[in-house]
Amino acid sequence: MPLLKTDPLLGTGLLIRPLAEPDWDAIVALESRAYAHDGLSEGREALKSRYFEGTCFVLDHEGRVGGYLLALPYPPLSCPDLSRAEETGHPSRNLHAHDLVIAEELRGRGLGPRLLTHLLDTARESGFEQISLVAVRGAHVLWAQLGYRAHPEVELPSSYGANAVYMSMKVG
């Protein structure tokens, strides 16, 4: 897998690259702006515990973090609890797309779907069988349009809020 993914659809000054240690301050700030008002913000320690080399990416906008995607192997039909950090890794053929945030000034340009396409390509190349996620804020409708299937039988940690929905899609 290449270290940098240049994509003409991203536009000038934008690229998808692996998350690096110096990115965490910007990631924590983006995550807080995106989720704090809903009580869904995790904080630095929990976010960093979701890091898995090769499946976490940054949308680099002219040398700054303009978005990110955190994904980690996780057992199917389960997910990390937002209220605590992960203590161990989980060997699994399921890749859990834990968090995707695009900076406000870059939204509406199709960058989220580009990050997801990159994740799907990475999952295929790495031998994952499916991608899972937890949809919050009514986003399950959008995820269903992208091919994800809801699993209402999955009990989610209360930290996701009352209307969260666990979803998955075969990588195939």
Furnish the topology, listing elements before pairings:
Layout: E1 14-18, H1 24-35, H2 44-49, E2 57-61, E3 64-73, E4 94-102, H3 111-126, E5 130-135, H4 140-145, E6 149-150, E7 165-170
Parallel strand pairs: 4-5
Antiparallel strand pairs: 1-2, 2-3, 3-4, 5-7, 6-7
Describe the structure.
This protein is an alpha+beta fold. It has a single domain (14-170), classed as Aminopeptidase (3-Layer(aba) Sandwich), CATH 3.40.630.30. The protein is built from four helices and seven strands, in the order E-H-H-E-E-E-H-E-H-E-E. It has helices at residues 24-35, 44-49, 111-126, 140-145, and strands spanning 14-18, 57-61, 64-73, 94-102, 130-135, 149-150, 165-170. Strands 1-2-3-4-5-7-6 form a seven-stranded mixed beta sheet, with helices on both faces. Strand 2 and strand 3 (64-73) form a beta hairpin. The longest helix is centred in the C-terminal third of the chain and has 16 residues, at 111-126. The radius of gyration is 15 Å and the shape is globular. The two termini are 18 Å apart. The mean pLDDT is 93.
User: Largest sheet, if any?
Assistant: 7 strands, mixed
The overall average pLDDT, rounded, is 93
Trace the largest sheet across and list its strands.
1-2-3-4-5-7-6
Given as residue ranges, the uncertain stretches (5+ residues, pLDDT < 50) are: none
Radius of gyration of CA atoms, rounded to a whole number? 15 Å
H/E element sequence:
EHHEEEHEHEE
State the secondary-structure class.
alpha+beta
User: What is the molecular shape?
Assistant: globular
- Name of the top-level CATH class: Alpha Beta
Number of separate domains: 1
Task: Quickly count the helices.
Answer: 4
Q: Would you report the number of β strands?
A: 7
First-to-last CA distance: 18 Å
